[in-house]
Design goal:
Strand content: 15-25%
Helix content: 25-40%
Number of strands: 15
Radius of gyration: 23 Å
Order of helices and strands: HEHEHEHEHHEEHEHEHHEEEEHEHEHEHH
Strand order of the largest sheet: 3-4-2-1-5-6
Number of helices: 15
Shape: elongated
Largest sheet: 6 strands, parallel
């Protein structure tokens, strides 16, 4: 996906121009409406600052939550405008709508270098249905378009794909450019050995990724709840652990494919089991073939961590998507934290480490190791689909390089 990027535009291309920038400001809030993690806001700053420094009038658009085409006051972008003003050290004017006369008058009042934030685009049904008329109205106040919302690039929505029909040039922002560079280049042209660590609770949600990666990687490590489907497919008793009964044949096929391709396929050797799914459950560590009846596996064990660490030691590129256990509960976080610590150490030796969105990012942030990784992806679903080799509509719609 060789696409035109912001870096390809000169200062004269954007100076004095009204630039519609699709960002991803879908940040978590606490009960009082305070932002609890501004990673996505910080990730958008380089593109905004690049444009304002060149004298562009920056009009920011984003979704927030799932208001389903209605105005929901708790899903307004007001807290985002406040945080953006602080981060940019300049006043960010906030609109109460994303289309219409109020937006037009506020855009008309902008000076070069100003920043305006539109209201939540998902207050309109036309956003998620990619309605051409809504896209046209969104585009009406701008001269060109920059998409920097990697987290929604796998959706063909009005603000990610539709507006490109009405604005030219339409280019990738610095965040999307960085995501493509790390995710695509590491999969298509990696330093080897290349390893993938795939975790999470269900095989079904990661089938595409595992199948695609088996064609590309030298080693694949499986963790999280999905391991029990693989064990059961091998005929091992897994007690009360999570199993997708309809995926047992698939699990066998994936292992067979790895063998055919000469890909090292690593499953944990021991697990931390609990007598119930709760933070205060009774726990014990057992070999994978010794899970007691009625007990469920909720994390990989210490022997597995050591085995995984040894197998990762010579890797030059590692992609990690999905936790090793129920890391939200302290008793079952050791496996995930062990992998995070291992990857942080590998990064220091020159290995490229990529954390592919979603829960893995939350786990690395929680462990305080985010700044020790080569790249933290801002897109859960988007990074998964990119790793699967799928086309992302929000990127496909941009101008070709």
């Amino acid at each position: 996906m060789a696409k035109k990027a912001l870096a390809d535009l000169s200062a004269s291309d954007v100076a004095g121009k009204r630039v519609l920038v699709r960002a991803d400001f879908n940040v978590p809030l606490d009960d009082s409406g305070n932002i609890t993690d501004d990673t996505r806001i910080r990730a958008a700053l380089p593109t905004i600052q690049d444009l304002t420094s060149k004298g562009a009038k920056v009009i920011l658009a984003s979704h927030f939550g799932r208001p389903k085409g209605k105005v929901v006051d708790s899903m307004r972008l007001t807290p985002v405008a406040k945080r953006l003003s602080e981060k940019l050290s300049k006043d960010v004017v906030k609109c109460d709508d994303c289309i219409g006369d109020d937006v037009a008058s506020k855009v008309a009042a902008m000076s070069d270098g100003d920043v305006l934030l539109l209201e939540n685009v998902r207050f309109y049904d036309g956003e998620t249905s990619n309605d051409p008329e809504f896209a046209k109205q969104l585009a009406a106040n701008a001269d060109l378009y920059v998409n920097d919302a990697f987290g929604t690039a796998h959706r063909a929505h009005a603000s990610t794909a539709g507006v490109t029909e009405y604005l030219s040039p339409a280019v990738a922002g610095s965040l999307i450019e960085k995501e493509l560079k790390f995710l695509q280049e590491t999969v298509d042209n990696p330093q080897r050995p290349l390893a993938a660590i795939v975790g999470g609770s269900k095989v079904s949600s990661k089938i595409g990724v595992i199948e695609t990666l088996l064609d590309k990687v030298d080693k694949i490590f499986i963790g999280g709840g999905m391991i029990f489907t693989f064990y059961k497919a091998r005929g091992i008793n897994v007690g009360a652990s999570l199993v997708e009964e309809d995926k047992l044949d698939l699990a066998k096929k994936l292992e067979a494919k790895a063998k055919d391709k000469g890909v090292e396929f690593l499953l944990p050797t021991d697990v931390v089991v609990a007598d119930k799914f709760a933070a205060d459950a009774n726990t014990q560590t057992v070999g994978v073939d010794s899970i007691p009846d009625g007990w469920m596996g909720l994390d990989i064990g210490p022997d597995s961590i050591k085995t995984f660490q040894a197998a990762l030691a010579d890797c030059k590129s590692v992609i990690w998507n999905g936790p090793m256990g129920v890391f939200e509960m302290e008793a079952f976080a050791k496996g995930t934290n062990g992998i995070a610590t291992t990857l942080a150490g590998l990064t220091g030796t020159g290995c490229t480490t990529i954390i592919g969105g979603g829960d893995s990012v939350a786990a690395v942030e929680q462990a305080g190791l985010a700044d020790k990784m080569s790249h933290i992806s801002t897109g859960g679903g988007a990074s998964l689909e990119l790793l699967e080799g799928k086309t992302l509509p929000g990127i496909a719609a941009l101008d070709d390089a």
